[in-house]
Input
Amino acid sequence: MPAHVVLVHGSRLSSTQWAPQLPLLAPRVGVTLVDLPGHGLRVAERFTLVRCVEVVAQAVEALPPRQPVVVVGHSLGGYVAMAYAAKHADALAGLVLAGCSTTPTGLGAATYRGVARLTDRVGPARMTRFNDWVLRRLYPAELVEPVIAGGYFFAPTAAAWREVMTYCRPSMLAAVRCPVLLLNGQYDQFRVGARAFLRACPAARVEVLPKATHLANLDRPVAFADAVLRFVDSATGEDAGTIVDDE
Output
């Protein structure tokens, strides 16, 4: 049975974050997109890590029995994916943690608390204009407009990162039995703690995408999708195929 990938988006975005990957992944593996509570189609739901795990569990359980499933989470979605895998150790064929190879404590945590407070003061309208301006300067329209169209979700930011900072640690991977890929951009500040994750889960492996930042799936969309497909191949024994890099 062909493998299936469940994609979990990062903070403030929605499942449209994965628009650049969909045409690359969908011909080769099954794909399910997840909106986290407080984001996208679940904007009315209150964000809690427990509820996030339930949402991912629902997506996985909706798939046919015995179908190999790989959960891919980016940033906030990566911590959610980690929390899901810690509670459902036998449910997955593989786990991809993108842009979340750091322990959310210390200076990094303080920075994100500051960003959340600043967002509240600036307000969603101005933050939306700022985000639009930044993304449109960094990426071509055909790549980023579908992502922008999904909107931004600022309200859950403080609660989401408070939950991550409180509960998410590399030790959560200790119970994970499936293969794990730590997938990060070369210039992503969230990859600085990868060694702690490898100590907690020695079977995990690291892949770094050259010239990519925290938004690696936008910086290197083809390379990101190719890394996922190669990992699916190795984790499931399926031949999902590879694609030409985007250099």
